[in-house]
Amino acid sequence: MGTRQYNVLEGCSGGVREVEILIRDIDPRFVKKYEEIAAKRGESRNVVLVRTLEKNAVVGEVAEMERKYQDLVEKVLVTLQHQNEVMRQVESLMNELMGDDE
Q1: Which residues contact 23 (CB under 8 A, 6 or more apart)?
Q2: Whole-number Å distance between alpha carbons of 47 and 36
């Protein structure tokens, strides 16, 4: 298979500085797919590819944040369950000291 080169990011305007990236050996079907997506959105292929690359760059960070959030939620749940049990014990002790038979 011959080498195909597509100049993907021609002067990306979304960042602090413009960078050009050259991607080699892309299957022409994928290039066509991105061109179709861009046409449907009324955007350039470059804009679609830049957004795709930017989203993919933060996927790992988002997954890590979600994991940390889930860990935090689980810790809060354990703490609340413990506090609930302590409150039941306090209530039981108060009832016992006050002579309530509930």
Answers
A1: 5, 6, 8
A2: 13
